[in-house]
UniProtKB/TrEMBL annotation:
PANTHER family: CONSERVED PROTEIN, GLYOXALASE-RELATED. Pfam families: Glyoxalase (PF00903). Residues 223-244 are annotated as: Disordered. Residues 12-126, 140-257 form the VOC domain. It comes from Actinomadura chibensis. SUPFAM superfamilies: Glyoxalase/Bleomycin resistance protein/Dihydroxybiphenyl dioxygenase. This is VOC family protein.
Length: 263
């Protein structure tokens, strides 16, 4: 089990959350697909739900306010040691501030922005809550990638913001993002956009891959629980994965990662 107990290094995806139009239906769907348990943080936290694996938080979920647009997606947050400085740096580089920097009930400090091409992302400076306590294991996220029409400006923006190094994939408009210590933390898929849940036109967006024990069984559960499948399970050097949607049309991937190479 990959367990996280402190704020992750700068630029590492460290939390996910989603706003949905029907939280009971969302809990039933994701509980069936990933085996999540849920803990309601209560009215003082707007009934924000912690989605848990083996009793540890891996993501968040909330009922969308009635006055919010009817578009839904998984928000990907990135670790920062100084949320204020990172948000200022992002804004100076052309990002739109969606939610200004704010404290979250002693749990951490956050902001939500849109990059210059319009993809939304969050910043999370963990304090009492460092973020997803389990990663890379079944029921938690294993990968995040940006679908964007032009990879060049995206690399420039996120590289300046988080100090990423870039590793292009030969023959593809795909760039792997690496922290300065060489750890792979995500990817950028150029020439690509995504229709979000409830959305009409395709837009730039971060997309999450959730680890599962069996990709084919996860797809069966998605269908049986009211979701849909954009792409059936297929194998790659990285594992077996499928592109799916929840009952509200929110896109995500399920993936059985390939075994780690023996050292």
């Amino acid at each position: 089990m990959t367990q996280v107990t402190s704020n992750a290094p700068e630029g590492t995806p460290n939390w996910l959350d989603i706003g949905v139009p029907d939280i009971d239906r969302a809990r039933a769907f994701y509980g069936e697909v990933f085996g999540w348990q849920f803990e309601d943080a209560g009215p003082e936290a707007g009934h924000y739900n912690m989605c848990k694996v083996r009793g540890l938080p891996v993501a968040g979920m909330m009922q969308n306010p009635d006055d919010q647009p009817d578009v839904y997606w998984w928000n990907v947050y990135f670790a920062t040691d100084d949320c204020d400085a990172s948000a200022d740096r992002a804004a100076d580089a052309g990002a739109e501030v969606v939610v200004p920097v704010m404290d979250v009930m002693g749990q951490g400090r956050m902001a939500v922005l849109k990059d210059p091409q319009g993809a939304q992302f969050g910043l999370w400076q963990g304090e009492a809550h460092p973020g997803s306590a389990i990663v890379n294991d079944p029921g938690s996220f294993v990968w995040n990638e940006l679908a964007t029409p032009d990879a060049g400006p995206a690399r420039e923006f996120y590289g300046a913001l988080f100090g990423y190094e870039f590793e292009p994939v030969p023959g593809m408009d795909y760039t792997v993002l690496k922290r300065p210590d060489g750890r792979y933390v995500g990817g950028i898929q150029g020439g690509s956009e995504t229709v979000l849940g409830g959305g009409g036109a395709a837009v730039p967006s971060w997309l999450t891959y959730f680890s599962v024990e069996d990709a084919d069984e996860a797809v069966r559960k998605v269908r049986a629980s009211g979701g849909s499948v954009d792409a059936e399970p297929q194998d790659s050097p990285y594992g077996r994965s499928a592109s799916v949607r929840d009952p509200f049309g929110v896109p995500f991937h399920v993936m059985k990662p390939a075994p780690e190479p023996e050292s």
